[in-house]
Amino acid sequence: MNTLSKISLSALFAVFLTACEKPTQPTEQKPEQVQASEIKKEEVKPVDTGAEDYKTFRDWQDAQEKALNDAIQTATDSLTDKQKADPAVMQETVNKTLLTQLDSIKTSAEALNIQHSEVKALKDKTLEVLTLGTQMIIEGANMEKNPTPEAHKAFGELQTKLNQLAEEGQKLENELKAKYAPAPQPEVTPAETKPQEAAPVNTAPTEATTK
């Protein structure tokens, strides 16, 4: 059975290669066909949406950061002075707010209409960081309640992975920022040029005037 299978496959490849080796006769195109073909090529030319998509992502990022800070501020402001003085209560309040907001942020990010591949990669990396950040909050709370070596190890592994994702995301961010949002160049003031000194006039009497 194996021999028959190999022979059949060899035969199929032979037929395929033979068909590929046969030259095809070029068909003469009429001027109208050539023009239509050129127009079609121009129509399918991809449009670079990088600058627009990157601006959309940056605006979204700023809005989400503000919403997150506002939510944490509102949650902590609602605590009593006694609760604010308790680090455990403050941390629990912040964690609950973060978990709630992170879910909303991830949903919002998935709804972003990003077409550019590099900007989309940055968005996907951001989602990875948010997902891992959620896991770290949960693991951190569990570690405080039950600080076993296993819990510390699990939290440390998440921290290492988060640092790696953050570095990758920062690299993408820097590349996109340099490409689509470069820092403004300082204005170059023209250097002051000293006025050229006039050539000294020779006031000595010439030989013709002295004779």
What does this structure look like?
The protein is mainly α. The protein has a domain at 50-180. The protein is built from eight helices and no strands. It has helices spanning 2-21, 31-43, 50-77, 81-84, 87-110, 117-145, 149-180, 207-210. Residues 1-27 have low confidence and may be disordered.
Question: How would you describe this structure in keywords?
Answer:
mainly alpha; disordered N terminus; 8 helices; 211 residues; single chain; 73% helix
Helix/strand/pairing class, anyone? mainly alpha
What percentage of the residues does DSSP assign to strands (E)? under 5%
Helix count equals: 8
Main sheet specs: none
Spatial separation of the terminal alpha carbons: 127 Å
The helix-strand sequence is HHHHHHHH
Q: What is the overall pLDDT average?
A: 75
Shape: elongated
Give the low-confidence spans.
1-27
Helix content: over 70%
Number of strands: 0
Cα-atom radius of gyration = 35 Å
Write the layout of secondary structure elements.
Blueprint: H1 2-21, H2 31-43, H3 50-77, H4 81-84, H5 87-110, H6 117-145, H7 149-180, H8 207-210
Helix pairs in contact: 3-5, 3-6, 3-7, 5-6, 6-7
Summary, kept brief:
Helix content is 73%, strand content 0%.
